[in-house]
Amino acid sequence: MKPSSKIAELTELIAPAVAACGVDLWGIEFMPQGRKSLLRIYIETLPEARANGEHVTIEDCSAVNHQVSGVLDVHDPIAGEYVLEVSSPGFDRPLFSREQVAEYVGEIVNLRLIHAIGAGDAKRRKVVGRLVEVGTDTMKVVTEDKLEFDVVFDSVDKAHLVYED
């Protein structure tokens, strides 16, 4: 869950613009796609608003889009054309940091890993299971078939919650 240097650069650049709109920057995805890249920004309400049941609105997304567009136009950190999307993380929210993962102990997570972990038939690059523990550098996930995986945060390529009805 270590951000790339490009994500770190973009985060540093746009975080103040997002904060100025009264919301938190949840995370950023940047996907170069040939001549046109995609920059997706996830925003979340502030913790006190979340505690009161408030959610990100379309107006929040619009305000952040406007603010961030201005910053990107001035600093021009992305070569070529790009599409800017601003969204709430939703129910199946992507997880970008250890702190975010720690908020969801007890929930089901879907992890895509950089390298396979486990041994024999249990070896895999994708782990879906209940998050049972979060440590300093690792998290423990128990799959539906009762396999336990200790996953190092730096080995996670992508992580998100699995929505349960």
From TrEMBL:
This is Ribosome maturation factor RimP. One of its GO terms (biological process) is translation. Required for maturation of 30S ribosomal subunits. NCBIfam families: PRK14631.1 (NF011224). The gene is rimP. HAMAP family: RimP. Residues 13-92 form the Ribosome maturation factor RimP N-terminal domain. One of its GO terms (cellular component) is cytosol. Keywords: Cytoplasm, Ribosome biogenesis. Belongs to the RimP family. PANTHER family: RIBOSOME MATURATION FACTOR RIMP. InterPro entries: Ribosome_maturation_RimP (IPR003728), RimP_C (IPR028998), RimP_C_sf (IPR036847), RimP_N (IPR028989), RimP_N_sf (IPR035956). It is found in: Cytoplasm. It comes from the Bacteria. It holds the Pfam family RimP_N.
